[in-house]
Design goal:
This protein has 2 domains: 8-241, 3-Layer(aba) Sandwich (Rossmann fold), CATH 3.40.50; 246-352, Beta Barrel (OB fold (Dihydrolipoamide Acetyltransferase, E2P)), CATH 2.40.50. It is 23% helix and 35% strand. It has 8 helices and 20 strands. The protein has helices at residues 52-60, 102-112, 117-130, 146-158, 176-193, 204-210, 228-233, 238-243; strands at residues 8-18, 25-36, 41-45, 67-72, 75-76, 87-90, 164-168, 196-201, 213-218, 221-226, 248-258, 261-266, 269-273, 284-289, 295-297, 302-311, 315-322, 325-332, 345-349, 356-357. The strands form 4 sheets. It has a 6-stranded mixed sheet, sandwiched between helices. Strands 13-12-11-14-20 form a 5-stranded antiparallel sheet. α2 (102-112) crosses α3 (117-130). The protein is elongated and about 75 Å long. Bound molecules: adenosine-5'-triphosphate (ATP) and magnesium ion. The site of magnesium ion has 3 residues, from α1.
Length: 358
């Protein structure tokens, strides 16, 4: 459906705003370098205020960068107004026209482009089919459920056949169940239409479910760009490790390095790690350990006392005190496994391959 798949490139992009309280300038976005491939689905993820919307608005042309260049395909677009850019945006608030029916809401942008009646009808009908609203052309938008309104907003952006579709938290007004359904729909439609998508959210599971790559932002800075797996298994720092899923951080010293692998001393115990991640012997290191990679067992790498043991149905939730470290543990499918009660003395155990060294 899209005329041409276009990538988006941000080169050394910065945006400076003035803090209304102090009157001081600050970087809302600082030196962002992002290269989005044609047809790729990329999510900007990060806590409130980290600059996600600002980046999206600069791509759309609602804000202009103070430094750097933005490219759509091979074209530098800094100087183009929003309507001259090959982008369309889906907002959190949907921003539908309340006194219009679905057809007119979706057709609005095409009418502005002065397309003929028959072409408009064909395009709108096709898009309404794609978002699952066929036959509902005459319904007024103020008589629709949240999910239906969201589909109209999506159809209205898609019908313009943009090279790049921009989403700013489009699902945050929907209840949890509908959000999961809609995100599956968004991914399906994006792939069917072959459109490049940049999606803003602070919901990490939404980012994981939708994205080819995730851009994790922290205070105006791009902290890490990678596939969901890279971000989860090889976070660049504790911020990413903590923001995406849950993590334990074990502090220790790297005692030996042999090839990629090594031995780290933590709580007086020698622990093998599969990849020292460029560190050298003598370095202070932090082991990132996901709760589902740790097990409570009769024998293991670090002795512990179980301080919390809770049956959660599909998993047993533990906390274990290992010297100075409190370790969170998720033991899936506990039905036929030995369960340790609070107060039990045991060991935590994990595979050297499941440890990520920072
Ligand atoms: N027009 C503006 N003038 C001054 N400061 C602004 C303006 N717009 C945004 N900011 C500030 O810039 C920073 C980044 O804002 P932005 O809206 O990009 O954050 P965000 O990551 O989208 O957050 P959220 O998840 O809450 O939507 C924030 O500190 C915000 O207060
Ligand atoms: Mg925002």
């Amino acid at each position: 459906m899209a005329k041409e798949k276009k990538g988006v490139r941000l080169e050394h992009i910065s945006k400076i705003y003035q803090d209304p309280k102090t009157g001081k300038d600050f970087y809302a976005v600082h030196d962002a370098n992002i290269n989005i491939e044609p047809g790729e689905f990329v999510t900007l993820l990060g806590p409130s205020g980290c600059g996600k919307t600002t980046i999206l608005r600069m791509i759309a042309g609602f804000e202009s960068p103070d430094e750097g260049d933005i490219y759509l395909g091979n074209e530098a677009i800094n100087a183009l107004t929003p309507n001259k850019r090959d982008t369309a945006m889906v907002f959190q608030s949907y921003a539908l026209l309340p006194h219009y029916n679905i057809f007119d809401n979706v057709a609005y942008g095409l009418k502005l482009r002065k397309l003929d009646k028959q072409t408009i009808k064909e395009k709108v009908t096709h898009i309404l089919g794609l978002v699952g609203l066929e036959g509902m052309e005459d319904r007024m938008t103020n008589q629709l459920s949240g999910g239906q309104q969201q589909r109209v907003a999506l159809a209205r952006a898609l019908v313009l056949e943009p090279g790049v579709l921009l989403f700013d938290e489009p699902l945050s007004n929907l209840d949890a169940k509908l959000r999961v359904d809609m995100r599956t729909e968004i991914r399906r439609i994006q792939q069917e239409a072959g459109i490049t998508a940049v999606y803003v959210t602070h919901d990490q599971s939404e980012a994981m479910a939708l994205s080819d790559r995730i851009i994790v932002m922290k205070k105006g800075l791009v902290d890490q760009i990678g596939s969901p797996k890279e971000i989860y298994y090889r976070p660049v720092d504790e911020f990413v490790a903590d923001f995406i899923g849950e993590s334990n951080f074990l502090r220790g010293k790297l005692a030996e390095v042999d090839g990629q692998a090594g031995t780290v001393v933590i709580e007086g115990q020698r622990i093998r790690v599969g990849d020292v991640n460029g560190h050298v012997a003598g370095d202070d290191v932090t082991l990132v350990l996901r709760p589902e990679s740790v097990h409570v067992e009769d024998e293991g790498v670090i002795p512990c006392e179980v301080t919390l043991s809770r049956f959660m149905g599909h998993y047993q939730n533990y906390q274990a005190q290992c010297g100075g470290h409190l370790v969170k543990i998720t033991e899936f499918n506990p039905k036929n496994k030995k369960v340790y009660e609070a107060g039990a003395r045991a060991f935590i155990n994990f595979s050297s391959e499941d440890v990520h060294v920072l």
